[in-house]
C-alpha cells in the first residue's frame, strides 16, 4: 500500500505531520492493506493564518484493486482529530465495500442461499 501525503501552504510541521499521518493511515487500514494499492491524504488549514472552529481538514482517497476510488473528508479543530476522523471513516467505508464483496462471492458460491424461503414464507 502506497501512501502519499499532500499539504497546503498553511499547514505547519509538514515533515513530522506526514510521518505521523502515514502511521495513522497504516494502522487504520492494516486489515485491508493487501487490497489497497494507494492512499492519498490531503491536509489543509481552511482559514490559513487565522484560527477558526473546525478549520483543519483531512481528505483521504483510497484505491482498491479493481474498484473505483473511495474518498472521505473530515474537518475538526485540530489536524490530529481531522486525520484520525478521516482514517476512521475510510476504514469503515472500505470494510463495508469488502463485506459486500464477500457476501456476493458467498451467494455466488452457494446459489441455494438466494433460493431459501424467508421466515414469513414458511
What structural keywords apply?
41% helix, four-stranded mixed sheet, 4 strands, 3 helices, alpha+beta, 122 residues
Characterization of this structure:
This protein is of the alpha+beta class. The chain has one domain (2-114): Ribosome hibernation promotion factor-like (Double Stranded RNA Binding Domain, 2-Layer Sandwich). The chain has helices at 14-28, 79-109, 112-115; strands at 2-7, 36-45, 56-64, 70-76. It has a four-stranded mixed sheet. Helix 1 (14-28) runs parallel beside helix 2 (79-109). The N and C termini lie far apart (48 Å).
Give the termini separation. Answer: 48 Å
Shape: elongated
- Count of the domains: 1
The CATH superfamily name is Ribosome hibernation promotion factor-like
The biggest beta sheet is recorded as:
4 strands, mixed
Assembly type? single chain
What's the count of strands? 4
Tell me the Rg in angstroms.
Answer: 19 Å
CATH class: Alpha Beta
